[in-house]
Design a protein that fits this description.
- The protein is α/β, with parallel strands linked by helices.
- The protein has two domains: 168 residues, 2-Layer Sandwich (VC0802-like); 209 residues, 3-Layer(aba) Sandwich (Rossmann fold).
- The chain is built from 14 helices and 15 strands.
- Strand 2 and strand 3 form a beta hairpin.
- Helix 6 runs parallel beside helix 7, helix 8 runs antiparallel to helix 9 and helix 9 packs across helix 14.
- The model has no long low-confidence stretch (mean pLDDT 92).
- Bound molecules: adenosine-5'-triphosphate and magnesium ion.
Length: 390
Amino acid sequence: MNDIILLKIGEIILKGLNRRSFEQKLLNNIRRRLSKLGKYRVYLMQSTVYVEGEDGADMDAAFEALQKVFGIVSMSRAAACEKDKDAIVALAKEYVREDMQRVKSFKVESKRSDKAFPMTSVELSQYVGGELSDAFPDVEVDVHNPELTVHVEVRDLAAYVHGAPIPGAGGMPVGSNGVAVTLLSGGIDSPVSTYMIAKRGVRLIPIHFFSFPYTSQQAKDKVVELARLLTPYCGRMRMEVVPFTHIQEEIRAKCPEEYFTLIMRRFMMRIAERIAKDNGAKAIVTGENLGQVASQTMEAMASTQAVTDLPVLQPLIGMDKGEIVAMARKIGTFDTSILPYEDCCTVFTPRHPRTHPTIAEVEQAESALDIQALVDEAMQGLERIAIEHE
Ligand code: ATP
Ligand code: MG
């Protein structure tokens, strides 16, 4: 049987935005995602993307992978046949045979975008429903509350019989909404914030601040693994690892302890901005969450953001920890995030951090540092790591 996957496009149909280039991005992302799994034909018609397997390509694997591609609202597997009522019945009998042995009631729901088809969708539903009812006399027709809905669609090239659609990943195709850098620590939050901004169609460049030997090689490997776990959603990425040890040592040596974290976070922002500007990225994404830790008060965030002109996107700002954890589990990063390797933020944590600083006060606290030289030095030591798909 000619098994295919039908994908309904989501928010791409947006006012004022260039729909063609959105669709093209989505098709490219789908093709790239499937290229490792086998040979598939991917094409778009009438706001639906069709995926056909070639040379026995694995349709189960494709269906699973496509559930993580942003820009798809719903998806279903289907079989195609000629646009003829009896061909549709023959296909439906075979395609739903197993399901019909499982359920007690069913109905047929038809859609017809080819208006030249000689039956209305109601007539087609009645006809196919009647034939299926004869073929499976133990299953009742129930148009109000059926256990199984058999979907029939008559489109331009063919007719399709499919089961109920399942939700897709939603959002917009990655790359359709520009590029941003994302600060990726080893924690629970930042993989989720990265996922959420990718969902809005943004291509991401992860940045990790690494303080070897205060933080271990395993801590870095863990972040690389988190980035890799995000590739089914974000696509291939290139991570920038910033050597952060010297900056932290300088802060410890020359600044008042209660400001350590705030000054460190200002360095993160300055370096993130430099990397962003070098790569055409237009925003900085963080996993900050209002009130979660000392550096996440409004005043602390104001002092951190004061060093950059770029918008700082904080998609988790209003979420509860429990909600963030649930999302981390859903996207598959939670188990890696809770591995016990320390992050650079915890290396020189002040005993009594300032929680409500003024910007002037923080500027004063960091005034003994040669900020420009430290940023330049970190930029020269960047390590790039290609993050490939699984
Ligand atoms: P997370 O769970 O993402 O680590 P957190 O709750 O521990 O977040 P902080 O440690 O205050 O919060 O960090 C806030 C944000 O700053 C993180 O979500 C992340 O975006 C960024 N960040 C913190 N440490 C690093 C790091 N070593 N490298 C890159 N980004 C970092
Ligand atoms: Mg953290």
